[in-house]
Amino acid sequence: MSTGPSERPAPSGLREVFAARLREALHTGGERRGGVSPTRRAYREAASLLARFDPRELRLPDEKHATGRAVLELVDDCTTLGMRDQAGWALKAEVREEALGGLAGPEAARRLLAANIGQLPAEPGPERFALAQLFGTPLAIDRLTAGELADALQAVLWLSRVPNVAGLPDTGRLQRALERARLLEPLERLVRRPFQGRAAELAELRAYVALPGGPAPPGPPVAGPGGGPAPVPAMAPAMVIHGPGGMGKSTLLAKFLLDSVHDPAGGIPFAYIDFERPTLSVHEPITLIAEAARQLGIQYPAHRAELDALAEECQQVARSQREGQERVTQLHELAATRAVLGRSYSQQFQSAATGRETGLVRRVGEVLTRAVAEQKSRPDEPDPPFVMAVDTFEEAQYRGSPALGRMVAVYLALQSAYPRMRAVFSGRAPVAHPAKQVESLDIELGELDPEAAVGLLASCGVDDPEVARELAARVGGHPLSLKLAARAATLAGLAGEPTGELIRSLPERRREVFRRVDQLLVQGILYDRILSHIADEDIRRLAHPALVLRVITPEIIRDVLAGPCGLDVPGPDRARELFDELSRLDMVEPAAPDVVRYRGDVRAIMLRLPGGDRTAVMREVERRAVAYYAARDGLEARAEEIYHRLRLDENPRSVEERWLPGVERFLAGAGQEMSPRAAGLLTARLGGGAPDHVAAGADQEDWERIAAQEAEDLLAQGFATAALERIGRRRPWTPCSPLHALYAEALSRVGRRDEARRAVADALVPAGRAGCGERRLELLLLSARLAQEDGDPVHADRALRAAEDVAVGLGQDLEAMGALLARARLTADEGRAEPDTGRELAERLRKLPDDVLSERPVLVRAVASQIYAQAPGALEHAVEVVGLPSDDETLDALGAAMRRATRRQPALLGKVMEILDEAAGPSRPEPGAAPTSIAGILRLARDRGTLDALARRLLAVPDRSGEIVAGVAAAMGVGSGARTTTGAHVRTAPAPGERHARERRDDR
């Protein structure tokens, strides 16, 4: 963690206390009144072209030495910047603007900067750009980095306020250059060191996107109509770059993009999507579309407004989708809602999400097509390729992944709108997915060639070419191994050791079959060599065993590490000394105040290696870590305890007993550091796909949960046949397995309904014998639904009554409510609604405590929307306890009901508009931007947090038609498949274009 000065205001109270004491000493009585004195104005002007300054050293042009008077003169005009011991001052914005405008001209500005040249920081800053501009030597914009452009823009904005300053660069051009530089900055960081090798891979990427200068794709050329070149295929497959960790996948992607953007033959449009950025989610393809639109807006300024509007629309859709995804999650958490509501809504949600995303990305492609056409020199000039580069995509790459399925749809939609679109993904090897129409192309990264390996060693500080060649011959071409070798060689040189000893300690390279073993051995030897150069013996003894810990603190050194490492740490002072020394190692990084951790790349290497004679020590460290964390409270401590238990390969079933809701976020990605059996439990609990070796090594119970999640995902996407294949790989299943219900569901969806009903019946008996109450409840409700769909009301009724008995027997009120809701829903679908069921639901809703109801908002909303006609207070109660959903579908349902009601009863229009106006609030956007449609006002109310208050007021409107109350009920039941008692089924959301057209039509 950096301890240098930060550019953020120090606690404002410090400066205020200082100012108050100054005023008290000077008897000023507070802020100085009257006009600004000439001296104060002069000091303001002296500081006006300085980003920060030391008031004690600030000089006026006619002063030979600083007098320190600026401290007193500017105390009310400045804010403080930086840390307490290195704080500087900066003029307040309004004071700076006034001071700059009061300067006599450019000569005065030059004199002020020259007088305070000693205040300028050593690194570039806006002051140096201002000096260069004032002295007529401005720097070329196209050669500046993003940081330099930001400084140049600030300098130009300052100088533009100084009278008579001419020849300034255009601020718009500077701003555009800055935005483009920031767009490329993440890529340039990845290739900061000289790029080595990978010529064949770069050529393959150029051929894939058909860039000028790239080799022709493999195979003989195919003639098109008239003997010319063949047209580009309608759909080109995506390209996947994959390989072991540390091979340089991201670096290759960055190098390819930068070369393509700066190609002398003409740059290309691109979007670089790094899913490690917190604003992007691999599980939300809509965020990728928003980011692509934002980046294209920077590259095509004439279309910036349109693309930014699309990006903003994507963000709105993302918010709505998150609510929908939460609805899916809640409907699957209860056994009573999973079979009747959950799976049908999951499929509806995925279908709607795919439709929204493909519609939006197609519109992005259409804007890109127009933007490209405007820049062509002639109409028949071919479009440039548009490269969508997606980094760190591993998390979505598993069979059945909904994110991968939706990404495939997004890719196809964008390519249909812009045929020369190409996608390059950095991640795992391509995986099969039912949504794929063609197999992906791939580039597998292997080791660097010998010349590139030598070049990488040289760039890492191995200056002797002969040493570099000998090291490369022993180490091979793995980039991480080469970097370790360079570090070991550098340390040996600093210690005066001959590098020949290091080279001789490494094994000679063997045949390809042994390469992976050799790499592990080489990396272990190199790491040991690096550790051997730690000067402090106690730190050397700590360094290797500490690798098994994900975090290290002084207390952990004393209580966990010291004993197994043979160190005497009598108290906190010695623990702190060791911690401070360990923190200085270059393989260690800060994680939080007084917390450090080993770098991820170091742990990734070393945890794969056999521990040798350290194995016993490291296992003892992990056992002590279990005891240490087990004695502590909190989710993070429990997660660390679980982590170390799994690393010790304890029985997953006993480890699972220590699980607490919420530990998941602390364990994400930890499965890579464990045995397949342990990783199986983590995958089963955290979700996502499991590599084949993890699935094969997982316990049966964990394998079933992993397969169940993949099957749920496949069913949600409409791939029932693939789901059947997935869950049938490992049988027999345990009696309580979720696969029994999923098997029946998949059979039903492929039309094998008799088999589906038999599968449910066969699973019910063993589930009952095993005491799996919740699984029996799910199976009974599924049995009732299948019977109802087959026109068998007798069996459906029998299964429903049995399900209610099971739910009551479980003693879980919410499950019992869910079972009753399932009865109400299924009997209503058959046209034989049972009033008693509705009354019992209303009674349960009324009696359950609000804090219990608030834990299951989706269930509460579904119940209220189902029974509102029989229980007039149910909607008000639900609005009060859990509120309305806030997604777009809710607003659509509510707005449609309001429009229908006011058409049938025009007298209601005034009251409805009054409610809408109050919900929208007094603070509207600037004139002309206020929403005028009902839908627009509802969205504003949602953003202001007044939607629930609006719903409560609507329920009190005297509407004889019942449309408004039914509309609130429909809005309340969005996504639950609710059928209101008036018979209006809650429908899915319209597509964006349909929604906008309907709003315009209905609001006329």
Spatial order of the strands in the main sheet? 4-5-6-3-7
Quickly give the structural class: mainly alpha
Q: Summarize the biggest pleated sheet.
A: 5 strands, parallel
Mean pLDDT metric: 84
Proportion of strand residues: under 5%
Low-confidence stretches: 1-14, 25-31, 212-233, 510-517, 924-929, 980-1004
What features would you describe in this structure?
The protein is mostly helical. Helices cover 57% and strands 4% of the residues. It has 46 helices and 9 strands. Strands 4-5-6-3-7 form a 5-stranded parallel sheet, with helices on both faces. A two-stranded antiparallel sheet has the order 1-2. It has a two-stranded antiparallel sheet with strand order 8-9. The N terminus and C terminus are likely disordered.
